[in-house]
Amino acid sequence: MMLPPLSRRLKILGLPNAQALAGALFRESFGADFPVPRDNCGLPIPTPPENWRQYVAVYTWPNGAREAVGFVNFIRYGDLYLEGGMCVKSGFYRRMPREHWQACRARGGIAQMMMEEAKRKLNDCIAWFGYCGDPMAMAADLRAGFEPTSRPYIIVQWFRQVDELTREKLIEQVERIGPF
Fold first, then answer.
1. Which residues contact residue 145 at a Cβ distance below 8 angstroms, ignoring those fewer than 6 apart?
2. What is the C-alpha to C-alpha distance for residues 56 and 18, in angstroms, rounded to an integer?
3. Tens digit of each residue's pLDDT (9 = 90 or more) over 82-118
4. What CA–CA distance (Å, rounded) separates 11 from 90?
5. How far separated are the first and last CA of the chain, in Å rounded?
6. Percent helix / strand / coil, the chain, rounded to 5
7. How far is CA 155 from the centre of its chain?
8. Where are the alpha helices (DSSP H) in the chain?
9. Model pTM?
10. Which candidate, 5, 1, 2, places its Cα nearest to that of 100?
11. pLDDT one-digit tens code per residue, 146-170
């Protein structure tokens, strides 16, 4: 029996609040509560719910079961987006049918695919900033267009041309936020 293409089995959804789909995945990945869109989320910046964008990758198995296999969170902050909480279901790739695994790998993996989907909608900014300390997440971020900054853990993907002084000011501004 021939499998349908990966595009029919894997959907990447942009949602205002993905807790219902990705809450368990986030807890499994980080051992922490899901980042529910809300004011006063613990960051030293305004975080009204309307500034949040969450992306979830949902895979439909051949038996029809649906599983959240990836998540990433974005918070709009001025003319920037802060990207965080990116995770991919542990062991997912080993369980996929081989043809789907190959197609997924050819597109850079679930994390990269979620960022590329988000980029289609969340490109109305100067830059995306990430706070990343995980080597596998960093590899996906770099493939998706992020670059390191001079600050530990802070990475950036520029969407608009800005001069070096402005870049440095934005990096400093994001650094003051702390982990996000």
1. 115, 119, 157
2. 7
3. 999 999 999 999 999 999 999 999 999 999 999 999 9
4. 18
5. 45
6. 35, 25, 35
7. 13
8. 6-9, 19-30, 92-95, 98-106, 110-121, 135-143, 164-177
9. 0.94
10. 5
11. 999 999 999 999 999 999 999 999 9
What is the SS3 assignment for 44?
Answer: coil
Query: Which of helix, strand or coil describes residue 8?
Result: helix
What average pLDDT score do residues 127-131 get? 97
Rounded CA gap, 76 and 122, in Å? 9
Mean pLDDT of 39-46: 95
Rg (CA), the chain: 17
* CA contacts within 13 A on the Cβ side of 7: 3
CATH code that applies to domain 6-177:
3.40.630.30
Say how far apart CA 57 and CA 70 lie, in whole Å. 5
Give the integer Cα–Cα distance in Å for 77 and 128: 10
- Residue 113 near residue 148, CB atoms below 8 Å: no
Whole-Å CA distances, 7 to 2, 54, 58, 127, 165: 14, 20, 11, 28, 42
